[in-house]
Every structure is written in C-alpha cells, then in structure tokens.
Design a protein that fits this description.
- There is one protein chain.
- With 142 residues, the chain is of the alpha+beta class.
- The chain is built from 3 helices and 9 strands, in the order E-E-H-H-E-E-E-E-E-E-E-H.
Length: 142
C-alpha cells in the first residue's frame, strides 16, 4: 500500500518469527528469495547484522545487469524488528526500511515492511514492484 511517499506491505508467512527473521539476517537464506523477478540471482550477500553493521547485496538479471543496494542496520530486535538504511550503488538517495514481525501462531508470522523517505511517488512505486516481487518468493524458503 502506498502512503504518501512511503510504502507499507504486509504478508502472512507460514513460518515462526525466528525462521522469518533468519531469512533477513542469514546470507545463505537471503540469497534464496531477494530477487524481484524470475531469472534474477543474488550474486553477493554480505550481512553484518548488528546495530551499526552494514549490508551489501548484488542482484543480477538475465542480461547481466546488476542492482546493488547497501546500507546500515540502525535497529535490531531479534525475531521482532529490523530497521536499516537503503541506498542504491548508483544513487545518492538514502531511504529507510523497517521490517516488523508479529507471531500469529507457532508457524505463522505477519511481516510488515515499511519503506519511507522517497522524494516522489514514481520512485516509491518502482520500489513497491521490487518489494512485491521479492516478498512473493519469501514463502518458498520455508
């Protein structure tokens, strides 16, 4: 859902909060789902998951074009919340992503992703498409 120059996406996933948290914090797991389109591959996933730690991803499409977000972890609450900055390698804009996890049962978790700080709705909408593509693949990890 778009809200001004922010976006909020919510998904219910068939896994515990611990498992969902791991998909965001373990390099081997994030490589399995962090691709918004079929045929894309995560070539690099470097995650230093601690407050003040950094992450760097490189995603490659079928034509060899790469997309590389990176940032700093601002808040880590194990199995509950992750807040990190988001910056594309070829851009100056820095935005913020918040991941919140709420247990709905032993093996069901509500994930809410909020991405904020976009200067306009066009850039926001491109990110909506990317996040929706990635989140669609997330249940396959479980």
């Amino acid at each position: 859902m778009a809200k001004g120059n922010s976006l909020v996406l919510t998904r219910v996933l068939p896994a515990s909060r611990e498992k969902v948290f791991a998909t965001w914090t373990e390099e081997a797991l994030i490589k399995q789902w962090f691709c918004p389109q079929a045929g894309m591959t995560v070539r690099v996933a470097e995650l230093d998951v601690r407050e003040g730690g950094t992450y760097h991803l490189v995603v490659e499409d079928t034509d060899g074009k790469t997309y590389s977000p990176s940032g700093v972890y601002e808040t880590i609450v194990t199995n509950e919340k992750i807040i990190f900055s988001w910056k594309w390698a070829d851009a100056e804009l820095i935005t913020r992503v918040t991941i919140e996890l709420r247990a709905l049962g032993d093996n069901e978790t509500e994930l809410t992703l909020t991405h904020e700080g976009f200067p306009d709705t066009e850039i926001r909408d491109r990110h909506i498409q990317g996040w929706e593509g990635c989140l669609a693949k997330l249940p396959d990890v479980f």
